[in-house]
Amino acid sequence: MAAAPGDDMIGRPAATPEALLVPIAPDRLERPVFAVFADCAARNPRAPAVLGPGAATTYGDLLGQALRIAAAIDGRRGARGEGLGGEGLGGEGSGGEGPEPVAVAIPASAGCLAALLGALAAGRPYVPIDPSFPAARNELILGHAGVRLVLTDRATAAGRPELMAAAMAAGATVLAIDDLAPPPAGWSPRGGPDDAAYVLYTSGSTGRPKGVWQTQRGLLHDVFQYRDVLDISAADRLTWLYSPAVNGAIRDMYGALLAGAAVIPVDLRTEGVAAAGRRFAATRPTIFHAMPTVLRVLADGGAGPAALGGIRVAYLAGERILAADLARVFADAPADARIYVGIGSTENATIYRHWLIDRETCPTNGVVPVGWPVADRSMRLVDAGGRPVPDGDIGEIEVESRYMAAGYWRDPELTAATFLTGGDVAPGARRLRPGDLGRIRADGQLEFLGRADGQLKIRGHRVEPAEVEAALRALPGVGDAAVLPDRTPQGETALAGVVVPAPGRLIDPAALRSRLAAELPPHLVPRRLLVMAELPRLANFKLDGRALADCLADLPTVPLASPAPALVSVGETGDPALADAVDRAWAEMFGAAAPLAGMTFTELGGDSLELMRFATRVETLAGRPLPVTLLNGAITPADLRRALSGGMAGVTDRLLFFVPGVMGMARHLIVLAARCAGMATVRLVALPDLDAELSRRRGIEDLAAEVADRIAAHLTGAAGPDGATPDFGLVGLSFGGRLAVAAAQILADRGLVAGMVVVGDIVASHDDAASLLQAGRIPEPSPGFRRRLVRGIGQPMSKLFFTLAQRPDHRALRLVAAFARRAAPGRRNRIRVERALISAIRRAMIVGWQPGRLDCRLLLIVTSHTRSSYAGHGHLLGWDRVSSDVRLVEVAGDHAALATDEANLARIVAAIGDAWPDQPSA
Does the keyword Cell membrane apply (predicted)? Predict the structure, then answer.
């Protein structure tokens, strides 16, 4: 790319400390950001700007879309009541300091970049909003920033109703960027170098996010420093792995767009490692930028060669960098590739130390130093009193520059306390202590030693947790590790550790601690260890220390084990697929921060439906059943692994598939399934979760087809050498009975005929929606005030959900559901809301549905309550029209008595055993 006047390049990536200190010429910073981008677009409008998953977006296309967005923003100054698709979602108004910010709530894409550039062209700072963030956090950000206009696209608006609800709650207008009109004649971009460019929200120490804002001049300085050091040109292709809402994305986005290069947006959270590898293989990035954590995920997932095979520079920053991380890069990168490392913060608005590493200068062990000084930024180490520390001593990092962030948005007190001026601070500059500790090595490089509030002193020894983390990661079979401060019962400082097993391995915490004690002094050995499926991460992929600390709160001390191998392969503990699937499903159910030992399913807040989902997820991951007899609220992953280590006993040549229905019957189905495990191999069939059901309106046939697909896959896997499938039956209670019947009919059409279908306590069909509102209701004896209050609120809400669920379009239901889920106080009430939602959706499927004919036996379970409620439906409740071979078992009580009364359970289990035909029906 031909450089613009006053915008010369260095010529090649800088190598020496002196070359890294070349400052940015001030005249290069006297232009608006959008003008620099527009020059690149004018220079080569057909060049690719964004290499997304579909067709590439050219600079000309991106410029045109940005101008349309800018003109639309400009035209809405003072406008009120115009929302997405013409529907009013709020109004614009005054607020904020300087021009009112515009929120951009679009995932990393060409549309996101066009919206960011459009805001700048309209002379407005932007607030990037990650649509995947919790709605409560996004609402808090929108309100604090004073946003009255939210830019999104129609796909995001349709897929994220909770985001629309957050915008409404914040009083903002939502504008879809799709299909906007061109700017009117005579319109031109606004903005200047000292105008606000962006407001980025970071997590504050108080738990409330803080908005860090920067000027366009400061943004240009950051990007030009990065561009000059790496000599970024129009021939480059830069990765974009960070969320637009975090500081790490700034250099990816503008490093490409202000140099005529192309950017490759990839969201690992939604696309996954395999898809990212395919994208990188197709686009061949030349500059790779990621945190070491993300690098490890890509490399371990097999995407390393695609991501790094064509690079000339890999930029690693954001957390401690290990020598092993450099080795990962050089293992897949070309011979002449270099690695760029550095350290900075959102408040610094760029890095303040950096280093370019080649194969000859690559450290071979330990933590990598973060480099030499950066031009236009001075750094020193000071003590608690602000005095410089002697060379070689540890001190708190202090940075001074004219190009820091401008401050905290709408928080002048915090800005004044954090960004210091006056005294010995240079004129026009500000001074900041980011809260990090460091030490200058003999070669002049900065050695980063962690947070100032994270330094520990144990038994008189100064301890750096990173040293223990490195020792844990070095042990065979450990995939990742983190170390946190801990307290002994006597109040003394100690360490606690979290380890993640490498793929295909299990970790014994006691044996691992013994192994570590043989290599480290006692004060460096964590007194407690937690094994997790993965380390909890924030949206920017940094370690979530608060979540880790919460997980460790109730973890007992790990005793030193007797001499034994520290790590055991899952292949030595029975069924490896099941053992690994248990841990993965547990982490998916309760989050990555959920402990794998010590806390039971119930203690973590799991209910009966989640227990069923957990079991079916384990089965899906492992490709084989989890014994239903092991399922109860007192289980832990450790309990399950121990039980599974003995192998799978008691499997028969018959299969019973239990089909769940509405949420209230999940516990009953699990109890019944466990009692039937002796007569057949019992399997639970997973159903889609609430979010999947909310995504589109479906009928019972659609859901039944999914059930049939899952059962058919199981049967195929259980087929004998001759291809013959085992005898099988389906069991469903309440709505699950209808699903079982519909699925059995679909399977029969495919040549897979069930021996029997068990239907629990329902009539064959409902003629109208009104009768469905009473279906399956269990009478409540003498409810107390609290129960009456909950029911008084819940019943109208359930009726509203049911009414909306019957509509052909689920958009209104999604919007109401987003509000209700967000407004529900606490986990228990949120679960109640979700139960009501899924129940309403499933009930709506029944309206007008008529079961077809079954060519197999049907066992009908009927309670006395259901018998009296539906006396007009005949002795067999209409099921004699579905099957010519109906058997009946009647039990006392109501729906709940199906699984809570021992006599009823015994009768039902015996009836299922007696009703099973010797051979499946023809």
Answer: no
